[in-house]
Amino acid sequence: MVFDPTEDPILLLNRLSKQFDRLTAVNQVDLRVNRGEIFGFLGPNGAGKTTTIKIIAGLLLPSSGSVTICGHSLATENRLCRQLTGYIPDRPYLYEKLTGSEYLSFIDSLYRQTGRAAPLPETARDYLDLFDLLPWQDNLIESYSHGMRQKLIMTSMLMLDVPLLVVDEPMVGLDPKSARIVKELFRRRARNGGTIFLSTHSMEIAEELCDRISIIVNGSTIASGTVAALKRERALEGSNLEELFLQLTGAVELQQVIAALRGETAS
Ligand SMILES: Nc1ncnc2c1ncn2[C@@H]1O[C@H](COP(=O)(O)OP(=O)(O)OP(=O)(O)O)[C@@H](O)[C@H]1O
């Protein structure tokens, strides 16, 4: 069957599971992310977000289930899927002894698979400029701050123009200006037909940026849809996403904890 990006999902997870010894980190997760969508993956600490993202990025093998990217099976067409996917980790590993520009050239050559150096894509300079990294491009990465590293890796993935971006906690370590720019860049990319799958703990980002979200708890997705639809389903139209998230992921215990911390008795 021929892949049709307007009809078929860019990212499809089918009963995806990951076992670490006796722990089921990801449990039969089904997800469908369409072209031009910004999809948010939310969940408490240890819920299985990073594990899922690493499987999609080809860094971890699933125990069962499948990942399909632009109609290609990650299991059987691994190399192609990795070329179609840009992965932005929450804690980037970068080669300290390369300069920013050298790192970008290295990533570019990896994705083009020519092994030969070539001029950087035009857009690389624009992203470096937007992120105030132009004056730093010839400095060694070892001299970059955490936020600068995050912006360099963002640049490296945005410049590639791949159909799918998978991002673990995009705003962690970014200052407000950079975070705002990233939001705008993601929106523009989605408008132009790109697809972004991101994990976040920020309810504001999810509410403001994501077309649809999925909430994962203990490895299983417990709710998926637009924020508005999920609120409607639970009669929480007047509330913010944080309220909905806490209800779905254990607000009762939280209220007890807060009451205990305040020295009150929970009702
Ligand atoms: N390499 C590993 N070996 C064993 N257990 C692991 C490994 N990686 C993750 N886990 C476990 O899998 C579960 C899911 O972890 P994961 O990092 O996917 O959660 P997360 O939703 O990204 O959490 P957080 O919001 O805290 O980053 C956790 O219980 C974690 O301890």
TrEMBL record:
Keywords: ATP-binding, Nucleotide-binding, Transport. CDD domains: ABC_DR_subfamily_A. It comes from the Bacteria. Residues 11-243 form the ABC transporter domain. It holds the Pfam family ABC_tran. This is ABC transporter. The lineage of its organism: Bacteria, Pseudomonadati, Thermodesulfobacteriota, Desulfobulbia, Desulfobulbales.
